[in-house]
Design brief:
The chain is an alpha+beta fold and about 100 residues long. The protein is globular. The chain has a single domain (about 5-95), classed as Alpha-Beta Plaits. Helix content is about 35%, strand content about 25%. It contains three helices and four strands. The mean pLDDT is about 95. The relative contact order is 0.30. It has helices at about 15-35, 60-70, 75-80; strands spanning about 5-10, 40-45, 50-60, 90-95. A four-stranded antiparallel β-sheet has the order 2-3-1-4.
């Protein structure tokens, strides 16, 4: 697979873990239903620390993720509301597949 893999790590407020899981899941569903550039998103929750969530996202490029994707109204709305259930902003990193491994 070509393109960019985006790893997004969130930490929920301890008393808001269920809300964070639900809101992040809802956002993923909206992105996958409305953004054709999205090649898929997997949400993971840490077994030992349930306040930690990681998203593995597939996009054609870092530029598309940072540009058109981040400007979508559903992303902006999520950012505005996230302070109620997340402990802070996410950590976002960009990766590329390594062939031949």
């Amino acid at each position: 697979m070509s393109g960019t893999v985006v790893v997004v790590s969130y930490r929920s407020l301890p008393e808001q873990t269920d809300t964070a899981r639900r809101e992040i899941g809802s956002l993923i569903a909206t992105v996958q239903a409305t953004e054709p550039d999205c090649g898929g998103i997997t949400m993971l929750q840490d077994t030992n620390d349930p306040t930690r969530f990681t998203l593995i996202e597939h996009w054609p490029s870092q530029e598309i993720f940072l540009g058109p994707h981040m400007q979508q109204p559903h992303i902006q709305s999520f950012i505005q509301s996230a302070g109620a259930f997340l402990a802070g902003p996410p950590e976002i990193s960009f990766w590329h597949p390594v062939g031949g491994a």
